[in-house]
Amino acid sequence: MALKLPTSLSPSKVSTFTDCALSFRFSAINKIPQPPTVATVKGTLVHSALERLLALDAADRTVDNAITCLHDASAELDTDPEWQELALNADEQAVFFREADVLVHKYFDIEDPTSIEPIGLELHVEHELTVKEGSTVTLRGIIDRLERDANGQLVVSDYKTGKAPAEGYQQSRLTGVHIYSYLCEQIYGERPGKVQLLFLGGSPTIVETIPTEQSTRQIERKVTSIWSAIETACERDDFRPKKSRLCSWCSYQQWCPEFGGNPDDAPNYAEDPDRPARSNGFRQP
């Protein structure tokens, strides 16, 4: 039986389908929410703190004010369902907030926020991409920070609270910001002069690259190819698992054939309009 196509693609969905088609089905089609983890909730918190910091006047973007921004963001956790679901005890909460504090401090090791000229923070972008004649897909996402550099060129920045990958894996991690570069070019008629990932975990590192005509066309071809593969998989109800080291963190193992499960046993929350929605919008580390 054919499955219903998702309504859009995002950098995270592109990454999920590339990593494991079956995981994509569970998250994007069955709409099974993944449980929050300490890492993802912490990532969301640090993103919120940095968003607040960069919204201040340049001269006010100090370390002390950054910690104030972190405390303000932390105060809102009490009503956050993902935070409540973690159910951390007092000691675990102390570690959580201490580690978030360290990440915010590390941000200042790799960048001077007073030199940033943001033109968009947590910026929602989307574009209707023609994948074939008469068929389009909405490509959308949220850019952590869009700014102009000293030369007036656009720069796409994305925060990561995890450690930077080894050099051989860095280019694959840049796919998301390359997609944002493509979206900026389609929406604003201007290709960014640079895209970058700011890794705050471990030894803070900035991984950056310059988008080109070739890289832009590669992104367009990649997204088109992935959407075509998703259409075929939906038509045939054939989303296959890909076993890898990522399986260790996957919350869908109980329905995965690689672990003795049956995908048909997975709940289909997309067909339950009365089920309360959960944002599942936490940031990946």
Helix/strand class: alpha/beta
Average pLDDT across residues?
A: 93
Q: Radius of gyration from the CA trace?
A: 20 Å
Distance from first to last alpha carbon: 36 Å
Helix content: 40-55%
What is the beta-strand fraction? 15-25%
Number of helices: 9
For the largest beta-sheet, the strand count, sense and barrel status come to: 6 strands, mixed
Poorly predicted tracts of residues: 276-282
The secondary-structure element order is EHHHHHHEEEHHEEH
Q: Outline, from the CA principal axes?
A: globular
Total beta strand runs = 6
What can be said about this structure in brief?
The protein is α/β, with parallel strands linked by helices. It has nine helices and six strands, in the order βααααααβββααββα.
Walk me through this protein's architecture.
The chain has a domain at 38-115. The protein is α/β, with parallel strands linked by helices. The chain has nine helices and six strands, in the order βααααααβββααββα. The longest helix has 24 residues, at 213-236. Strands 1, 2, 3, 4, 5 and 6 form a six-stranded mixed beta sheet that branches.
Write the layout of secondary structure elements.
Blueprint: E1 8-9, H1 11-19, H2 21-29, H3 38-55, H4 63-75, H5 81-86, H6 90-110, E2 118-132, E3 135-148, E4 154-160, H7 170-173, H8 175-188, E5 194-199, E6 205-209, H9 213-236
Parallel strand pairs: 1-3, 4-5
Antiparallel strand pairs: 2-3, 3-4, 5-6
Helix pairs in contact: 1-2, 1-8, 3-4, 3-6, 4-6, 8-9
